[in-house]
Amino acid sequence: MGKTIPAHARKKTDIHLTNEFVDIAPRHNLLSWGLTLGVTALAALLRWPRLGVPNEIIFDETYYVKDAYALLTNGYEREALEKANEFILEGRTDVYQTVGSFVAHPPLGKWIIALGEHLFGLNSFGWRFGVAVMGTLLVLVTTRVAIRLLRSIWFGALAGFLLAIDGLAIVMSRTALLDGIMATFVMLGVACLILDRDYARDRLSRKLKPKSKYGGRFTWHPWRIPAGIFLGLAIATKWSALWYLASLGILTVIWEYSFRKKRLAKRPIMGTLLRDTWWAKIQLLVPAFLVYLASWTGWIITTGGWGRNPESTGLVNIFKSLFEYHKQIWNFHINLVTDHSYESYALSWPILLRPTSFFYKENLPNCASSNCAAEVLAIGNPLIWWLGVIALILVLINFLKSRNWRSGTILLLFLAGWAPWLLFPDRTMFYFYSIVYLPFLVIAIAYIANSIYWGFNLKHLNMNVFFAVGGFILIAIISVSIYYYPLWTAISLPKEDWLMRMWLKSWI
């Protein structure tokens, strides 16, 4: 457990203390990193075996597998032949036409997929390799973020453990799509900004007397630059990460204002605006923009990409063409209204109303039953998600009552990945987009568990009750993950066993 002090032991005059926990991160000791690496190892064990199964191009892999290999060989995406998927599964790589292909997403995520194709070839293991690396890294980073955010090693590790065994996180680590890659870069950006918050406050607190005019002088924020880089990488994977850049930018301003106010500054708003806000924008936005622009290097330095006029020379003309390309991408996204059997409105995502089936095949050979089926179903562990919804409601109540910065951060970062989709009810969208906010859902569960633990501790209640109930819930969650694991990894099941796992008709 992180170093926390009960409320009755706090000094009212200590302005470093919050209304809930001491604002000091747990030390990165052997236990902290041991639990982190243990949870990450578990995540790897659930993601890497049989990574190449199914040995097919499933769901939207049909776009990114071919785009990635085209980037690898040409520097830009090219139109594929009509039967390109069949040719690839036969071992062919000459599956492209000579013209550039219009793509709806920036190149970076496809470059990560291309890295695996470069190392292992154009096969199912190769195009899923990079995604599996990023999915495993997501668990590690989420664990570190949770430990620092919750100020608790054990409950931070709990958040990482829940992410490691959740079905959506597993499926998105085993499928060559972009959303899991984006989620990892977003979490790396979040990790940097939380590190920056602790670093800057510690540096200011050591030299600053309270009740100053602005509540603090200008200070260097070294972690904001890598945060901007990682957020730029996320945006260079999918544009929806822009909401996180905006939300985290707002969060840094809120943190600075809160700190200056707690320092009893006479003018905390002016202090935040004059000493920090402008600098925060530069440190976040400039690296993000430069990284995003760099992700288009292949398109810029070649002449065959879609919308790239080969006769156009000079950087000004090239960037004009790139700007026009971006207008076309924007128009595509805002006008994407196409019926799909697995489309799902964002309001239903947290309660798992309509998951996405990436792959399904029945009448399989060597079946012990009359019929066997194999599926890759992008659906989270129902207990984790439904408990997560309850936890988020409790986090909201906690924030409204206490204005605690941890609960506010969890809520804002969850909403940054979910709420924007509510604004476009007619757009075609899918449940698996929610992978980007899943880390904050499991952190919400760990946050509430930590709060209950300290509630028992402070009231001197029997802690055996807490551990008995918590242990029962955790065993139930693990059991559900074991039960659903075949549906996440295309393990063959008798059809009747597959049907037993369809708890809601909308899952079929």
Structure commentary:
There is one protein chain. The chain has 508 residues and is mainly α. The chain is 60% helix and 5% strand. The chain contains 18 helices and 5 strands. The protein has helices at residues 30-47, 61-74, 84-89, 108-120, 124-150, 153-165, 167-172, 179-207, 224-235, 242-262, 268-294, 297-301, 315-334, 382-402, 405-422, 438-458, 463-489, 495-500, and strands at residues 78-80, 96-100, 356-362, 372-378, 493-494. The strands form 2 sheets. It has a 3-stranded antiparallel beta sheet with strand order 3-4-5. Helix 8 packs antiparallel against helix 9. The longest helix is centred in the middle third of the chain and has 29 residues, at 179-207. The radius of gyration is 24 Å and the shape is globular.
What is the structural class? mainly alpha
- Kindly, what is the distance between the CA atoms of the first and last residues, rounded to a whole number of angstroms? 42 Å
Rg over CA atoms = 24 Å
What portion of the residues fall into strands of 2 or more residues?
Answer: under 5%
Q: Give helix % range.
A: 55-70%
Sequence of strands across the biggest β-sheet: 3-4-5
Q: What would a concise description of this structure say?
A:
It contains 18 helices and five strands. The chain has 508 residues and is mainly α.
Secondary structure topology:
Blueprint: H1 30-47, H2 61-74, E1 78-80, H3 84-89, E2 96-100, H4 108-120, H5 124-150, H6 153-165, H7 167-172, H8 179-207, H9 224-235, H10 242-262, H11 268-294, H12 297-301, H13 315-334, E3 356-362, E4 372-378, H14 382-402, H15 405-422, H16 438-458, H17 463-489, E5 493-494, H18 495-500
